Automatic annotation (TrEMBL):
Organism per entry: Aquiflexum balticum DSM 16537
Superkingdom of this protein's organism: Bacteria
Protein name: Two component regulator propeller
Lineage: Bacteria, Pseudomonadati, Bacteroidota, Cytophagia, Cytophagales
InterPro entries to which the protein is assigned, alphabetical: Reg_prop, WD40/YVTN_repeat-like_dom_sf
Amino acid sequence: MALYAILQVSFFSTFTSCNGQNNSKKQKEKTIEVGVTVPSLDKTIWAIYQDKSTNYWFGSKNNGVFLYDGQQIKQITVKDGLVSDEIRGFQEDSEGNIFIETERGVSKFDGRTFKTLQIANPESPTNDWVLEQDDMWFRMGFNNNGPYRYDGKYLHFLKFPKSPQEDEFKSKNKNANFRHYGLYTIYKDHKGIMWFGTASLGVCRYDGKTISWHYEEQLQTTPEGGDFGTRAIFEDKEGKFWINNTRFRYNIKPNSTINLDYSKENGIGYINENNEMEFPFFHSMTEDNEGNLWMVTYDNGVWKYNGKELIHYPIKDGETDVLLFTIFKDNKGVLWLGSHNAGVYKFNGYSFDKMF
């Protein structure tokens, strides 16, 4: 899920120079005492976040959170109060509370202790969907048939309305052993509209009034024939959307029907070793401070799109290909990668270096 930080550079610089002593004091007051100091991160890092106090939070597949404060790494687990050690994402509210999403629930950290968010109801009817500016949205596992909305007090489970694609999918996949509405990703765009990427039924979009669906075979099926699901949704600086791969870019139109109204334009590809045009399928995407788009693939490194061409950055750990899960832009615009088999990498301006 994507969070945006608004950097007011000139104001911040003035404020810092005038209040350096106060800022230092606040930083000391925000020192996080929980967890156990460890020498390194877990190899499997699925989520990365930097909070307002500049701490880095790394979420592992099943070994809890790794917190880096610039000097040391601490591992935080269920022993410290987390609801689960299977970490899937981080968010932060206006008061600096950190929300840690896991497979079994959401933990809220106030700087000292963890609190597990309570679920208000087992399942809300379709007409209970609302969209408030300060709400947070969570997946809480892969097999749910909808997202959880947090209103500041409780989590509310919201069941997806029926997708136009459901009946056709069921008829073709009678023996499917997973939930086709299962959530791969949740994304909030610049207008505050919510996007949900499902396992098999494409994209669901909620604008506060209408829940709309969008499905295309080319978004779901890889050239090798596998079902990719909807793993990544991203809005670029022009307000246009990229979904799963670089074949097309989407212009979304206001609509009030169950089918998403849009137009699309050609995206960007590259010539592969067989002299064929190929369009990378990506797990995660972000935009750097210069407006370049960066995409991570699972087993084919990182791709940068500078508005003209795709530039490839292979990522290796020695001779081993690094299997990537996420890309994150920190408070200073530095890019970080989280991987399935080699921990974390950081961009040095030319290439990605393995960290810790």
